[in-house]
């Protein structure tokens, strides 16, 4: 029987722990604060930001939200970040990606105070992650680590294949999988668009993590029996629905399910964990900045 991993349930468990830590902080007169900044007209980005703000409200984290028109100069975004860096009520800053083409993404990431960088994308935090001394683990890969742990999937000594080498998912995921300790110690292969014979790599894997952004590109014929399949992809494809589209992952769910030992669905798999781990990082940021200890 294939286990269909319930990301909502695992996310709820983590969120309950984060909410308890928030209560502890509030009891010490520290209300964790998360600022989201949106500089885009993209509908999906708007949805992601509003889901993050809603999660803050449910947990008791104070949400601050800023919208900057996509045709403003980069300097407008930088000065907003500078203000948020200086604001003691804001412990975490998230600039929703992608930003417009005229805004240099690397400069945005480097502008955020590393202590408030709850996405974990600032070079200082990337360096700490690679060195095995993470301050804020990037939310999606961290959430996947939690999924694997909660599902009882051992990573030690296993062959893991990560499909995708982006800075936000593929690279940090691979870094976590090769670290010493629980959730790591996997022999990890990172694949990308130039990989020769991807199916040969995925067929030899115990764990496949698909983060390519290509709808349903990994199907059952590319997997061996007993694989754990984590589908990160969120792709809008045209469909005869009210919205005119539906969300599908990077994995062809039905054929992959027939081979897999455990598999995440889309939606309801990795997505809820990404938000839960953002809340986790925000509460951790509030603890680090206030000096109030919490057991996260
Ligand atoms: P990017 O577009 O930044 O990176 C995609 C990666 O996949 C690249 O490394 C690319 O290779 C590789 N790739 C593309 N096509 C192929 C192919 N045919 N075969 C092998 N590798 C390929 O995407 P992200 O990492 O930002 O996101 C990936 C997916 O995950 C998207 O669908 C996104 O929406 C989703 N996502 C979901 C989240 C969640 O919470 N569930 C959070 C973040 C993202 P190359 O480097 O050579 O171009």
Mean pLDDT: 98
* Outline type: globular
Q: What gap, in angstroms, lies between the N and C termini?
A: 34 Å
- Percent helix, as a range, is 25-40%
| Content-based structural category | alpha/beta
Number of strands: 11
CATH superfamily caption of the largest domain: NAD(P)-binding Rossmann-like Domain
Write the CATH fold name of the largest domain.
Answer: Rossmann fold
CA-based gyration radius: 19 Å
Sheet with the most strands: spatial strand order: 1-11-8-7-5-6
Counted by DSSP, the helix tally is 10
Which runs of at least 5 residues are low in confidence (pLDDT < 50)? none
Q: Just name the CATH architecture of the largest domain.
A: 3-Layer(aba) Sandwich
Beta percentage is 15-25%
Number of spatially distinct domains: 2
Q: How is the biggest beta sheet arranged? A: 6 strands, parallel
Bound molecules: NADPH dihydro-nicotinamide-adenine-dinucleotide phosphate
* Overall CATH class of the largest domain: Alpha Beta
How are the SSEs placed, and which strands pair?
Elements: E1 3-4, H1 7-27, E2 33-38, H2 43-59, E3 62-67, H3 74-86, E4 92-95, H4 105-111, H5 123-130, H6 139-150, E5 159-163, H7 170-178, E6 187-191, H8 198-203, E7 207-210, E8 228-231, E9 235-238, E10 245-248, H9 253-257, E11 262-263, H10 271-290
Parallel strand pairs: 1-11, 2-3, 2-4, 5-6, 5-7, 7-8, 8-11
Antiparallel strand pairs: 9-10
Helix pairs in contact: 1-10, 2-10, 6-7, 6-10
The protein binds NADPH dihydro-nicotinamide-adenine-dinucleotide phosphate (NDP).
Note down, in words, how this protein is organized:
The protein is globular and about 50 Å long. The protein contains 10 helices and 11 strands. It has 2 domains: 28-124, Leucine Dehydrogenase, chain A, domain 1 (Rossmann fold), CATH 3.40.50.10860; 139-272, 3-Layer(aba) Sandwich (Rossmann fold), CATH 3.40.50.720. Helix 1 packs parallel to helix 10 and helix 6 (139-150) packs across helix 10 (271-290). The longest helix has 21 residues, at 7-27. It has 296 residues and is an alpha/beta fold. Bound molecules: NADPH dihydro-nicotinamide-adenine-dinucleotide phosphate. Residues 140, 163-166, 168-170, 191-195, 198, 211-214, 217, 232-235, 270-271, 274 line the site of NADPH dihydro-nicotinamide-adenine-dinucleotide phosphate.
């Amino acid at each position: 029987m294939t286990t269909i991993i319930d990301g909502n349930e695992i996310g709820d468990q983590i969120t309950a722990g984060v909410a308890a830590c928030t209560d502890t902080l509030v009891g010490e007169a520290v209300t964790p604060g998360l600022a989201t900044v949106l500089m885009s007209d993209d509908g999906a980005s708007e949805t992601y930001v509003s889901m993050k703000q809603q999660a803050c409200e449910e947990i008791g984290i104070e949400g601050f939200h800023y919208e900057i028109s996509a045709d403003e100069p980069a300097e407008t975004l930088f000065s907003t970040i500078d203000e948020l860096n200086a604001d003691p009520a804001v412990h975490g800053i998230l600039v929703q990606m992608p930003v417009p083409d005229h805004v240099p993404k690397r400069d945005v990431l480097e502008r955020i105070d590393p202590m408030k960088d709850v996405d974990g994308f600032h070079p200082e935090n990337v360096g700490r992650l690679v060195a095995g001394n993470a301050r804020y683990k990037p939310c999606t890969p961290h959430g996947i680590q939690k999924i694997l742990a909660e599902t009882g999937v051992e990573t030690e000594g296993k062959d893991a294949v990560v499909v995708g080498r982006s800075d936000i998912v593929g690279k940090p995921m691979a870094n976590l999988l090769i670290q010493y300790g629980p959730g790591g110690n996997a022999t990890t292969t990172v694949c990308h668009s130039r990989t020769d014979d991807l199916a040969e790599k995925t067929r030899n894997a115990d764990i496949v993590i698909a983060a390519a952004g290509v709808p349903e590109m990994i199907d059952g014929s590319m997997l061996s029996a007993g694989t754990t399949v984590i589908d990160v992809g969120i792709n809008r494809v045209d469909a005869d629905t009210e919205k005119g589209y539906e969300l599908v992952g990077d994995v062809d769910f039905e054929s992959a399910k027939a081979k897999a030992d455990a598999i995440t669905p889309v939606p309801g798999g990795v997505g809820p964990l990404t938000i839960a781990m953002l809340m986790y990082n925000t509460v951790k940021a509030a603890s680090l900045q206030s000096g109030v200890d919490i057991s996260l």
